[in-house]
Amino acid sequence: MAITPQATARFVLVPTILLTVVGYYGSILWTIGLSFTPSRILPVSRWAGLDMYERLLSTERWQVAYTNLFVFGGLYIGFCLAAGLLLAIALDQGVKGRSVYQTIFLYPIALSFIVTGLAWRWLLNPTTGLQDYVRSLGFESFSLDLLSSPERAIFTLVIAGVWHSAGLVMVILFAGLQSVDQEIWRAGRVDGIPRHRMYRHVVLPMLWPMVVTCLVLLGMNVVRSYDLVVALTGGGPGFSTDVPAKFIVDHYFERQSVGLASAAATLLLLTVVVLFALVGLLRRRGEAA
Amino acid sequence: MTRVRIENLVRSYGAHAVLKDISLDIADGEFLVLLGPSGCGKSTLLSAIAGLDQVQAGRILFDDRDVTRLEPSAREIGMVFQSYALYPTMTARANMAFALRVVGASRAEQEERVRWAADLLQIGHLLDRKPGQLSGGQRQRVAIGRSLVRKARLFLFDEPLSNLDAKLRTEMRNEIKALHERLGVTFVFVTHDQIEAMTLATRIAVMDAGVIQQVDTPDEIYRRPATRFVADFVGAPAMSFLEGELVAPDRVRIGENTVAVPDYAWRSAPRTGSVVFGVRPERVSVAPVPGTATVAARLRGIEPHGADTLVWAELSGQRLSARLTPEAAAGLPQSLHLDFEIEGVSLFDPDSGARL
Ligand SMILES: Nc1ncnc2c1ncn2[C@@H]1O[C@H](COP(=O)(O)OP(=O)(O)OP(=O)(O)O)[C@@H](O)[C@H]1O
Ligand SMILES: [Mg+2]
User: Fold this and answer.
1) The domain defined by A59-288 carries CATH number 1.10.3720.10
2) What is the number of alpha carbons within 13 Å of residue B201 lying toward its C-beta?
């Protein structure tokens, strides 16, 4: 029997497919299963119905973490898009030394969230960071103490996150702006359309698919924001900056509540699925538009 | 209604001069075609007229008003681009109405102007589609429609037909011509297609390497090209050029042959000396027997084109072509006797390329 190239290709892909099916989807199913058990340190297979979910929803720490997902996610995505777009437009307007700025703003992306978190932790630390530096310049009353305030610590996550990711949005949108046919701009000039209206009514709608791409990339960062939180605030003060991912990891591995953690993981998965379905809708609307 | 006057326009990119001291007058209501090979500066000149490109020296006047420093939108022009440059996320209607919307025209006025342009171009049924849902020809119409909606006194077209297939091209060409007659305003149209230029223009400006070589009616350009470049560029099949010598003002010697040019319409003073003898292929015929005015040539090849046949011949080592009917071209002997009609002959100075 002759082996066709297609058969070879399929054969080579088998390990990958197995890994995906067992590793990803298998784990997901297992987690969902565990969320209906009262497992503590080790998985048990006793049915507990929705007990874990009830416990989870009444846990204050989870409520904070889940709310933070949206506070952090909304602000992070919003500011990243806004800053990235403004930077991209500035570059597109032909700022001198364009490639230098591009490199500077893109650089943070090369760092992991861990490094980003640590760097900002030092920077925002009252005794070693910016506050100390500004005071040493003679402004004795200067105070920059975001990290120790439970209400404001979440914003340090946003600041560090935006610093990290705005460059990515900039690069993607800048590529989009550059691909806009110059003749469209010329047509706008002949028509007497001011630049800002060209951006608003013509160019940005053309960039819609790229905005959605940014949304997806940033959204994934929000969901796995675990490392940024761990490095920058450790979830504190208290658990004021906790996020679902950190809640889940803590409960699996430190607090030995596998059932509760699984319920949290399942809820997070559900949230992500719903959000991504919304993004899919947005994308389809963009295509129809 | 606009007269356009271009005075000593200069535009260069670094050391590369793209427009070299261009002067041109365009009369009110004229259909002027800028014709020239790729890269000769046609688009640059058109952009300068539109105000999309700054010029380094010279002036542009619309009806005696200096517009050299005015923004395009202040020049009251309509422009159609080669890539159509429609706003891709807007419907055809929104594309056409956008300029009016931005200046705050009322909905009724927008609708009325769009209607008028759409009726003129027969695109009423396409108004709710986006550019991506239109064919090339339909996009072209919408682009023209967009330029019509704002009241313009001068229309500029930059190779608007070059992305269309041959049949659609002919159709749009006729439509643009009809539009010009209907609107009665000045059109400036850039192309490198000589058929387009010949059929559309009231006058053609032939450009080469940033210089206008000749501005004349299509007929004049074809029959009395001012330079060898124009003679070569305009006309298909192209004019044949033979190097020769004027032994007398009415006789050209080409190799061992002598061609009589008794009634040549001299542009400069008749002279003798070396010359380039140009002749249009359709003005060359094959005589059955040698006569006093014929020259001897050898048959080199036959190219049937359907309606007529191009016959290649060699005359004293130089090639020339004759455009014959298929019947006349059938069964030609190896040695030919060629006859030239004086109306198809142009003489050029071999150094300057200027018409003699
Ligand atoms: N932005 C620019 N920078 C440098 N050179 C340019 C620029 N724009 C045009 N040129 C040069 O100017 C010359 C004329 O360009 P232009 O676009 O006017 O040619 P064209 O006659 O319209 O040609 P085509 O028929 O190919 O459109 C070309 O040699 C081109 O390389
Ligand atoms: Mg061009």
Assistant:
1) yes
2) 28
CA distance B42 to chain A (A): 16
Nearest ligand, CA of residue B44? 1
Give the integer Cα–Cα distance in Å for A75 and B321.
76
Q: What is the CATH number of domain B4-225?
A: 3.40.50.300
Which residues of chain A neighbour B103 with C-beta distances below 8 Å? 192
ipTM field:
0.83
Between 2.40.50.460, 2.60.120.970, 3.40.50.2300, 2.40.50.140, what CATH number should domain B237-348 receive?
2.40.50.140
**What separation in Å is there between the alpha carbon of B39 and the centre of ligand 2?**
7
Please state the domain extents for chain B.
4-225, 237-348
Q: Which amino acid is at A106?
A: L
Averaged over successive runs of 10 residues, the pLDDT of chain A (289 residues) comes to 80 89 87 81 76 81 88 93 92 82 83 83 77 74 70 84 90 91 92 91 90 89 84 78 86 80 89 88 71
Nearest neighbour of A189 by CB, restricted to B72, B83, B102 = B72
For residue A62, which amino acid is it? W
Task: Please indicate if any CB of chain A lies within 8 Å of the CB of B197.
Answer: no
pTM of the model: 0.81
Backbone angles phi, psi at B311, to 5 degrees: -110, 125
Q: In whole angstroms, give the CA distance from residue A152 to residue A138.
A: 26
Chain B contact for A201 (CB, 8 A cutoff) = yes
Using CB atoms, pick whichever of B82, B90, B103 lies closest to residue A192. Answer: B103
Amino acid at B187: F
